[in-house]
Design the sequence.
């Protein structure tokens, strides 16, 4: 089975960092680091193997590129697939509002 390369775009890295910073304030640094490692591992394991197994995101109808979503815990990842690369665009709280402009939305 071919594997995909998973790329966290700058916007997704910023989203993870915001959640990590929040975790540091609420849980402490050690637990936040553990969460970040577990989160990345879960994402990489699944998206590297079966990214097309995840459904289209509600935002898909707003863009020319196919936008898919993956839910990990309370987070919803928005991503695209380009050949053998998976580009993680954003990571939102599972209950965050729909994103109409992937580049210009406000933070959670």
Sequence:
């Amino acid at each position: 089975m071919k594997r995909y390369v998973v790329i966290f775009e700058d916007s997704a890295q910023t989203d993870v960092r915001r959640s990590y910073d929040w975790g540091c304030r609420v849980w402490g640094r050690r637990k936040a680091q553990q969460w970040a490692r577990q989160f990345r591992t879960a994402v990489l394991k699944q998206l590297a193997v079966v990214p097309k197994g995840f459904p289209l995101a509600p935002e898909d109808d707003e863009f020319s590129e196919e936008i898919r979503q993956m839910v990990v815990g309370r987070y919803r990842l928005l991503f695209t697939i380009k050949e053998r690369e998976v580009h993680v665009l954003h990571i939102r709280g599972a209950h965050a509002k729909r994103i109409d402009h992937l580049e210009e939305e406000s933070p959670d």
Remarks:
- The chain has two helices and four strands.
- The beta strands are 5-8, 68-72, 75-82, 85-93.
- Residues 101-108 have pLDDT under 50 and may be disordered.
